[in-house]
Amino acid sequence: MLPVVRSLLPGPTGEPALERHRLEQHYALPPAPARHVRANFVTTLDGAIEIDGRSGSLGGDGDTAVFHLLRELTDVVLVGAGTARAEGYGAAVMPDARQGRRLAAGQLPVPPIAVVTGRGIEADLPLLTPVSGAPQPLVLTTAAAAAQAPDVVRRRAELVVCGEETVDLARLLDELAARGLYRVLCEGGPALFSDLTRADLVDELCLTLSPTLAGPDHKRLIVGQRWNAAQRLTLAGGLEDNGDLLLRYSRYSR
User: Fold this and answer.
1) How far is CA 236 from the centre of its chain?
2) Whether 189 contacts 80, CB under 8 Å
3) Residue 16's Cα: distance from chain center in Å?
4) What global pTM score does this model have?
5) Comparing C-alpha atoms, which of 109, 64, 107, 73 is closest to residue 91?
6) Spatial distance between the Cα atoms of 142 and 135, rounded to a whole number of angstroms
């Protein structure tokens, strides 16, 4: 059951609900092979992306519905190793109806999870637990980390070298595209999102703004190296669900 949400932008306000097909239209992606990198986050009003180390408690039903829809629409889910550990990432399992729509669209029934790491991942990461019907995860890493990967990681994941000593994000996207994974959904963490944005590789940001103040000492949406210049985005859409603002921003066109 999709939540009742009110359309703020585009279109008239005051609509009683966005039905499923309208929600799909709102978040529609360009057809493959057009490359598209979309990031999805939920933050508090003061910019925190977690409470007690997890993001799941921040968003309501609308945010949850958008989270699952974005996964349904994407070719691959991209996530940093730190977020995969903190959030206990496993395979992106989804019900048969969603898998059927993906198959009809020419996609894999379940999108693979692609983990970005410069140092490799642990053998006991939940993501490495095989799940029937789910593709092997991808580990996008360096040549040095790949050479030292434990045997269980080699058996249960596809290791993809995207640089010698550091992960080259542009090369990473090329490696995904070479596997037919053009439409990328980045789910975090903040370091990966910051690096992708600084490299001008993010096409769209889906941001749920929770009406919550987390206070100091929480992780924020952007971390890492200082940028040379601020990044401007264009508001492309807005929905509201029980106080949550479900915002969609696209790359600013000069």
Assistant:
1) 18
2) yes
3) 28
4) 0.90
5) 109
6) 22
3-class DSSP assignment, residue 4:
coil
Largest CA distance in the chain: 57
Token pair in block for residue 17: 């609900």
Q: Cβ distance 56 to 208 under 8 Å?
A: no
| pLDDT, tens only, 76-92 | 999 999 999 988 999 99
What is the C-alpha separation between 70 and 85, in angstroms, rounded?
A: 21
Residue ranges of E strands in the chain: 6-9, 36-44, 76-80, 113-116, 138-141, 158-161, 183-186, 204-210, 233-241, 244-251
- Distances, alpha carbon 160 to alpha carbons 3, 12, 84, 120, 178, in Å: 39, 46, 17, 11, 11
φ/ψ bin of 94: left (φ > 0), alpha (ψ from -120 to 50), beta (otherwise): beta
Q: Which CATH architecture has domain 32-251?
A: 3-Layer(aba) Sandwich (3.40)
DSSP class per residue in 102-161: HHHTTS-SSPPEEEE-SS---TT-GGGS--TTPPPPEEEE-HHHHHT--HHHHHHSEEEE
Q: Which residues contact 104 (CB under 8 A, 6 or more apart)?
A: none
Span 128-161, pLDDT tens digits: 999 998 999 999 999 999 999 999 999 999 999 9
Instruction: Please tell me whether residue 65 adopts helix, strand or coil conformation.
Output: helix
Which is it for the CA torsion 106, 29, 134, 60, positive or negative? negative
Beta bridge partners, 19, equal none
